[in-house]
């Protein structure tokens, strides 16, 4: 096809005026031969240029990265994580004024005013249980945080597992949804989980959380808003899409009453759960709140909460362990300094001594070593414990003589 620039078009029109008989023919045929010349950028002011290509392709780039992450069976690339962490933070724009929660700032100064009254009744009904879960759920929150950050997802999303299952792997709905993330069998299989008569990976915390991260990314690709994603996680994409069409808005507060009541309440539960977990308040007085859940534990938070850097979180694997594992024995077998092991797993021996489970965290290469040697490590740990008991008993007997 011929390409006519503005100068060429002016020349043709000048020729047409000189030859009137051709003018009508040229006017009729010109659109078929000429491509309109549209600049690739529009000058808005002396300093502002909006580039057409950037406007048209921004979501395409974002969606392409999301698709690659979802389809890949390999760890997410660091540049993809960095990119996604920037774009997905805006998904809470209708909940927080600055897009994400900041524990150093009072809750009321950053949360959308709609949310303050929205969660009152749920807070009153469930505050006691949520406060208890706020303490007992710390190991699970740490595990989920470590996985969400690998996908560039906001860590607030961990509270979705609270309202889905109370963080329980044994949770089973009447419709057949199972595990901490309440996957239906077909959705679980779509995101790489094995579900059959012999095995059900929906109850595997690590694998199901990775699958949930991919599913959440898929929903975010569609709705670009985390409150709508939470509603869709509960009621399905179709119902949220229908509410958007009916209301003419993508803002949750505008379309909430076009959603099914259950999906609308799911968002309410999420907001209330986030509020209690982050602040510790139960009276709904958000003006008093500047508390971060990670600063609390049943004893001393510094003993059970690992404070990892962003770089460390990108290269950490987690695994739930129980029994009589010993921190010193693990560190020796995976060639780590005790200080480094304690940095990743504070209070390891103290927690296991109570009979509780512990979410072990190690750099990826060290976790591979641990998995390869875990039975040997456990055997050595038990022998060391028995040796310590025998030594202590001899000391006690000698002191009585």
Instruction: Give the strand order of the largest sheet, numbering strands 1, 2, ... along the chain.
Output: 1-2
- Count all strands and give the number: 4
Largest sheet report: 2 strands, antiparallel
- CATH architecture annotation name of the largest domain: Orthogonal Bundle
Strand content: under 5%
Which range best describes the helical content: under 10%, 10-25%, 25-40%, 40-55%, 55-70% or over 70%?
A: 55-70%
* Cα-atom radius of gyration: 29 Å
How would you spell out the order of helices and strands? HHEEHHHHHHHHHHHHHHEHHHEH
Taken from the alpha-carbon principal axes, the silhouette is globular
Mean pLDDT: 76
CATH level 1 name of the largest domain: Mainly Alpha
Low-confidence stretches: 31-57, 282-303, 388-401
The secondary structure category is mainly alpha
Distance between the termini: 107 Å
CATH topology of the largest domain: the name is Lysozyme
